[in-house]
Amino acid sequence: MSHHFKKNPDVSWQMVEGQAVLIHNKLGEIQVLNDVGSIVWENLEKGVDKLVEMITSEYDVSEEDARKDIETFIKELKEVGAIFAE
Amino acid sequence: MNLSLDDLFEKAYKKRQLLYAFLEITYNCNFACKFCYNPIYRRGLERGRDVEVKTKNFPLTLSEYSSLFEKLKKGGVLFLTLTGGEPLMHPHFFDILKEAKKRAFSIRVFTNGALIDEDCAKKLKENGVLRVGITLYGWDKQSYEESCGRGEDFEKVINAVNFLKKEGIFVYLKCVLTKITEKKMDEIVEIADKLGVILRWDPVVSPTVEGFDYPLKFMASEKAFERLITEEKFKFSSSPFERAEGDSICTVGRISITIDPFGNIKPCPQWQEEIGNVRENDILEIWNNSEKLKEIIKISEEIPEELKKVTKAHKYCFHCAARSKLLFGDPKRPDPQEIKIAEIKMAFEEKKKK
């Protein structure tokens, strides 16, 4: 899995009360990410290693579990076309 | 988790997050609507108000827009509306759009549609425009001539809707109910139906931003208001009748802000009071700390009580404080026209219950 990603420019987004609100311009749907998802989205360009570091420092989770969760979430974002691998 | 626009709106409203920014990027316009609230260039003149600082006279540059967008993104804005005048008249419209797209805003354009050909629709799509709101001024060439002096553009507007739809841009129509449009309300609805787009009516004509009330001569008849309220097929531009008890009368100062072509910051497009200028002030500082903005929010909170004093139909009244300020010099003063519409609505609702 590539470790660097960029947001699809067709996705409009903003942080509302600490949560990422995404609007996929092609689908017109509004999605709200959970707390961890929001950290991943906001800091996506920093790469997976940095994201793991951010999540483990914020939440009581092992590095292994955090990495697994982040990679699953990134895979989902890729599948819906919200992000691309660089 | 999926969220409705209403939920998002409520979230932002409660937190007072700056979610919407309206950018009047030019006051220039290719139309000359007789009832326009913002007819700056119609007479070939600039805004009549005095401009205290000379530099404010110059429209914002592209790099100033770029810095502004950076601030707005940081400040929480998700929805950015480019309006005017006619925004497509701005010589650098697409450059501004490109700068906005870089910040991942959800971009909407308010336009009369006449300048949107196939190529323009493509460029709007490529540059991230999600929604286009087109104002419909009539139902044929003649009514367009009567409303805005641009009969020849009626067909272009209809074509624009199709070009935008082809590009997959969400397009909707808005129509101001006037003495002219009330003549063929059904035909106007049919046009939207045939095009397969939503049409929302705006029932109230406003005075000009300079306070002239001549547009009010074009206010529709009571009979037309009655049709608009009582017939299912006519939809409003927003939902003025869905205000809960205790709700503030409008969202001014709570989720949105307006910036004019010269960088002046205004509470809303109609509220003609500058609360800062992006060249001199940090817009987020203005949003968070402007005493004037706090005062305006307080006014909007007090309006429901003012309405209660004058009409039993107060909860159906969609009082526009900026409009009352222009009309009467008092943003809290209830407008008899708005009260009349509210009373028609109340009578209709009571009749339905029976």
Tell me about this structure.
The complex is a heterodimer of chains A (86) and B (354). By secondary structure, chain A is an alpha+beta fold. Chain A has one domain (5-85). Chain A has helices at residues 35-42, 48-58, 63-79; strands spanning 5-7, 11-16, 19-24, 29-32, 83-85. Chain A starts with a strand and ends with a strand. By secondary structure, chain B is an alpha/beta fold. Chain B is globular, with a radius of gyration of 20 Å. Helices cover 39% and strands 12% of the residues of chain B. Chain A binds chain B through residues 7, 9-17, 21, 23, 25-26, 28-34, and chain B through 1-5, 8, 11-12, 15, 17, 19, 73, 76-78, 101, 104-107, 128, 130, 168, 170.
Question: Topology of this structure?
Answer:
The complex is a heterodimer of chains A (86) and B (354).
Chain A: E1 5-7, E2 11-16, E3 19-24, E4 29-32, H1 35-42, H2 48-58, H3 63-79, E5 83-85
Antiparallel strand pairs in A: 1-5, 2-3, 3-4
Chain B: H1 5-15, E1 20-24, H2 62-75, E2 79-83, H3 93-102, E3 106-111, H4 118-126, E4 129-135, H5 141-148, H6 154-166, E5 170-176, H7 185-195, E6 198-202, H8 222-230, E7 256-259, E8 264-266, E9 276-277, H9 283-289, H10 291-310, H11 321-328, H12 336-353
Parallel strand pairs in B: 1-2, 1-7, 2-3, 3-4, 4-5, 5-6
Antiparallel strand pairs in B: 7-8, 8-9
Helix pairs in contact in B: 2-3, 8-12
Can you give keywords for this protein?
heterodimer; A: 86 residues; alpha+beta; three-stranded antiparallel beta sheet; 3 helices; B: alpha/beta; 39% helix
Q: What is the overall shape of chain A? A: globular
Number of separate helices of chain B: 12
Strand order of the largest sheet of chain B: 6-5-4-3-2-1-7-8-9
| Strand order, largest beta sheet of chain A | 2-3-4
- The secondary-structure class of chain A comes to alpha+beta
| Terminal-residue CA separation of chain A | 11 Å
Taking the alpha carbons of the first and last residues of chain B, their distance comes to 41 Å
Task: Please count the helical segments of chain A.
Answer: 3
Rg of chain A over CA atoms, rounded to whole Å, is 12 Å
Query: Kindly state the mean pLDDT of chain A as a whole number?
Result: 89
